Amino acid sequence: AGRRVIAHLDLDCFYAQVEMIRHPELTDKPLGVQQKNLVVTCNYEARKRGVKKLMSVKDAKEMCPQLILVNGEDLTPYREMSYKVTELLGEFCPLVERLGFDENFVDITEVVEKRLKELQQSGCSGVCVSGHVYNNQAIDLQDTTHVRLIIGSQIAEELREAVCTRLGLTGCAGIASNKLLAKLVSGTFKPNQQTVLLPESCQELVHSLDHIQKVPGIGYKTAKRLETLGVRSVCDLQAFPAAVLEKELGVSIAQRIQKLSYGEDDSPVTPSGPPQSFSDEDSFKKCSSEVEVKEKIEQLLRSLLDRIYRDGRQPRTIRLTLRQFSATEKGFHRESRQCPIPPHLIHRFGKESSNLISPLLDVLMKLFRKMIDVDLPFHLTLLSVCFSNLKDLPSSKKGSIGFYLKQMSLPSGSGK
DNA sequence: TGGGGTTAT
DNA sequence: ATAACCC
């Protein structure tokens, strides 16, 4: 069962770290990254003073009047640094899966096996753990599962060290026998530390979660439905009759989340490779005329075309997403329409993007009119454009393998 | 609540 | 096309 060794790496307050690298003079000051009216993340100087992630700007400045805010609505610097991290990890080991911009899973099973054999050949029997052991559990060097995980902790330390010396970023790592456990354990010692989980402490780790929604994979909706059934804790979910759960959530979800509640997760580390979509969005208080919509969409389109051009692949699908104001329900009621990109336009993605803007803007406005009757009043609070279904150029080596090593250094273009 | 992403149905 | 999940 527990044959694999998985590392989860989680950068510390990633956007704030990137901003501190961009503005070294801010490094020892309380710093927050702002998007619209929110402080989406902040450095540890700010956290000491009570600022929390996703706090409103108003509350944050009340907590910490000296707080310095930088605007982080343009994700370009974070996205670029994020891929540098994934690329670096990929040098150690091909199995790297991204989760958001600031987390990566690495399946280090094969690297561990190699080191284990080297160790056995050199006749050395002493191995030393790097970082913390969850629950302070005693290590048994006779237990090869323990030894593999200890070697995993040493590899994770090397990964964090490489990320720090080569990119200047700190982060946490968790090492365990599957992705779920590696992710859960990585947060136990917080900034810039790492923790390994030995199998005997698995149940204590999952039971340390105070609510089922803390289990990665059980989100808001599922947690609400489980509450209806009286299931609130990990214990409740473990003990709940499987047949009833399957009828309520469907066999697939029921079986998966019940296994998660025991700390079981056989999902593989799936190499992410290059992105499968490129999107750009903007939110606002109000957008209510077609002219305004067209202007906003054009802005989104310009920066997206620049990104696609740098990527080198050609998208086949374009999508427009919007959110309409609704006083009732604070909810996230988004709708979208998508269509194939007209085939005669596709070849132009390899070149200057300026002559693509006008025809694609026409396509997007048609999609807009499929959702909104422009003769009636409307009130939008978000617009988003997405390109997906990306295809490699014929016979050019820009595919998933060449991706990471490619062109990290085109001139920085017309971002917004 | 922001500005992204992915997979399953 | 939407709905769920992740950050």
UniProtKB/TrEMBL annotation:
Pfam families: IMS (PF00817), IMS_C (PF11799), IMS_HHH_1 (PF21999). Residues 263-282 are annotated as: Disordered. GO terms for molecular function: damaged DNA binding; DNA-directed DNA polymerase activity. It comes from the Eukaryota. One of its GO terms (biological process) is DNA repair. SUPFAM superfamilies: DNA/RNA polymerases, Lesion bypass DNA polymerase (Y-family), little finger domain. Residues 6-219 form the UmuC domain. The keyword Membrane does not apply. Keywords: DNA synthesis. PANTHER family: DNA POLYMERASE IOTA. Belongs to the DNA polymerase type-Y family. This is POLI polymerase. It comes from Nycticryphes semicollaris.
